[in-house]
Design a protein that fits this description.
The complex is a heterodimer of chains A (about 210) and B (about 170).
Chain A (H helix, E strand, L loop, with lengths): L1 H6 L3 H26 L4 E11 L13 E11 L3 E7 L1 H12 L11 H26 L3 E3 L3 E6 H13 L4 E10 L6 E8 L1 H9 L11
Antiparallel strand pairs in A: 1-6, 2-3, 2-4, 2-5, 3-7, 6-7
Chain B lengths: L10 E3 L5 E4 L5 E7 L3 E7 L4 E7 L18 H14 L8 E6 L8 H4 L2 H15 L3 E7 L5 E6 L4 E5 L5 E3 L1
Parallel strand pairs in B: 1-3, 6-7
Antiparallel strand pairs in B: 2-5, 3-8, 4-5, 4-6, 8-9, 9-10
Helix pairs in contact in B: 1-3
The chains are: A alpha+beta (about 210), B alpha+beta (about 170).
Chain lengths: ~210, ~170
């Protein structure tokens, strides 16, 4: 009771949210997998509630250097989608997308960024299409931004918007990888408070899940 | 991971919306991976007191009580930082500020249209001006994250970006 009341969101609503975002996430990872032509598995999918100052820990700490593709959510509700990769994985993805030998790409120029933007476009669209299909709410991805930077700086703009309303973060954190571990990464879905309200108000069936 | 790891044994990290103050000459205070946030560093060289605030948002709305942790807002964090520095032995008339951060990380979406970084920098400058604290150094804007450190013993402030050298502000 205490945890639910602190966040102002109840178990049933949370279950509904988890189900929706879980389905969207599976769809997004399937889209990504199809695009790069490699089987990618979800190894962990968690709805986490963390104090905002601990949020960078999800990405290895505020100073951890990563490559991130950011896609904003616009339309009937707003939120943030971040695909985050270790730097060597992101460079390897560019090799795959551009048909280069593994290890050829050493830095992110305009061409390389545009290849990664495509991954953001596909993943974001697959996620939002699933959400829209299940709720009837029109959701659109913004053009993607590719960043090679520290986890803290990649997250703080999105966190600032969330912190206008609350100091804890609801995040759907998905870790995915290929069997050979050549591709690993994290997909973070960060809804605004308004986004969650809009989604859980939709009268759809829900499954009860245990609060984490 | 290595870049942001504490370079010295004695270090304190100011996370989002946090304030750290120290008068220990061996201490380093840090804000790691600052994007649209602003690291506000204030120093009293005579008393050897250094302080840092990791500001996330510009102003709490119209005097309404801040939601949650107030020190995420520039207009609440800076007066609180000044108070904690006074408590640690700093003298207001000697305080000098340096600020860093306020980048625009996203090219599109609410994060871009809200111009959080730019508004944070403007808010921090306004509050420092209202408090009559002089800004003696600034490295703000751009599109890159920064790690900002203040070495309490010397008052030296360093800024590091990914792939760039560590520069003194």
């Amino acid at each position: 009771m205490d945890q639910e009341q602190k966040s102002g969101i109840y178990e049933v609503e949370l279950a509904r949210w988890t189900e929706l975002v879980g389905e969207g996430t599976h769809n997004a990872v399937a889209g990504f997998s199809e695009m790069v032509g490699v089987q990618i598995r979800i190894t962990a999918l968690d709805l986490t509630v963390v104090p905002v100052e601990k949020a960078p820990d999800m990405l290895g700490g505020a100073a951890n250097e990563v490559v991130a593709i950011y896609v904003g959510i616009e339309g009937g509700a707003t939120g943030h989608i971040l695909l985050v990769y270790p730097i060597n994985v992101a460079l390897g993805l560019v090799d795959m997308m551009m048909g280069e030998e593994p290890g050829n790409t050493q830095e992110l120029g305009e061409m390389e960024e545009s290849a990664l933007q495509e991954i953001g476009n596909v993943t974001g669209s697959f996620f939002l299409n699933s959400m829209a299909d299940n709720t009837g709410i029109r959701l659109m991805p913004t053009p993607p931004t590719v960043m090679m930077d520290m986890a803290g700086s990649i997250l703080d703009t999105a966190l600032a918007e969330i912190m206008m309303n609350r100091d804890e973060l609801f995040a759907m954190e998905t870790v995915f990888s290929t069997d050979d571990l050549n591709i690993t990464g994290t997909l973070l879905i960060l809804p605004t408070a308004d986004f969650m309200d809009v989604m859980i108000q939709q009268k759809q069936s829900y499954a009860r899940v245990k609060w984490q | 991971m290595a870049v942001g790891a504490p370079a010295q044994d004695k270090s304190l990290v100011a996370n989002l919306g946090e304030i750290k103050v120290s008068s220990d000459p061996e201490m380093t205070l840090s804000c790691l991976g600052v994007g649209s946030c602003v690291a506000v560093c204030i120093y009293d060289s005579k008393a050897g007191v250094g302080g840092m605030a990791h500001v996330v948002l510009p102003f709490s709305d119209n005097g309404v009580r801040a939601r949650g942790n107030g020190t995420k807002y520039a207009n609440i964090a800076i007066p609180e930082l000044l108070q904690q520095m006074r408590d640690a032995g700093a003298v207001r008339s000697r305080l000098v500020a340096k600020i860093s951060g306020g980048a625009q990380m996203f090219k599109a979406g609410a994060g871009a249209t809200m111009e959080t970084g730019k508004r944070n920098v403007e808010a921090v400058k306004k509050v420092l001006a209202d408090e009559a604290i002089k800004i003696s150094g600034e490295d703000t804007g751009g599109t890159k994250g920064r790690t900002v450190r203040i070495h309490v013993g010397s008052g030296k402030i360093t800024i590091k970006t990914v792939g760039g050298p560590e520069n003194e502000l």
